[in-house]
Each structure stands twice: as C-alpha cells, then as structure tokens.
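Late entry, evening session. Most of the bench is empty. Finally got around to the prediction I had been postponing all week. Sequence below, unchanged from the version circulated by S.P.
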Amino acid sequence: MIIKDSVRIPYADLSFRTARSSGPGGQHTNKTETAVELLFDLANTTWLTAAERAQAIQRLASYLDSSGVLHLESQSERSQLRNREEVTARFVALLKAALVPVKHRRKTKPSRAARERRLAHKHQVGDVKSARRRPSHDE
C-alpha cells in the first residue's frame, strides 16, 4: 500500500481479526463473522523513519493500545470482504493524514492600516451602542 512517495507498507504487515457484527441482521449476523479489526504494529514498524513513527504515534494516540499497536474496526457492511476493504482504506487515509508535516506559523504583526481600521470599527460600534442609551438629564 502506498501511503506517500517515500512510505510503502506491505499488505502482509497488516493483520486482521474477524468477529460477529453487532446490531440487527437476524440469522446472517448471528452466524457469520463479518466485523473486521485491522491491527498494525506502529511502534515497531521498519517502514517508517523514526521521526515519521514518532509523529504518527503522537497523532494516532487514540487508536493505539499500550504496546503501540494500531486498532481499527469496521462492521458497517454485510460482507467481510467489504469491511476489510473499508478498514484498509481508513487505515491508509489515517496514516496519510498523520504523516503530513506540521506547518510552522510565522509570526507577523498587523499593519498600521489594519490597526487603524480595527480601532475605527471599535469606535463605530461604541457610537452605535451609546446612541441606544436613554438620553441623560443634561441633554
């Protein structure tokens, strides 16, 4: 599976477990194991660099267990094959998103004109609010 140009993970590194799906479905649900759980050892994979692995572990922490294994589950389809395809597509999308480099923000200051526009707007809003008040006895 191609995650990005420099990252390719062989399908053999993924392991799958099946179980019976929950929810309605009658005899089909009760007799067949259509739910699929994808397991991927993210903490010990050799297909990612150390920096990529650390970034992925940080971003996908909610999907990891205590030993660093990624768990994804699908039981939305009636077929085990379709659930396997769906969970694999989700895995690829999650890993792609986790490996996007962080864009660092460059500090900037608002321009003088922008500061003046902001203050002019504040004064305008203040004038509108003061016009809503009852006139004082002096006026």
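Two things to note before I forget:
The longest helix spans residues 112-132.
The chain has a mean pLDDT of 90.
Will write this up properly tomorrow.
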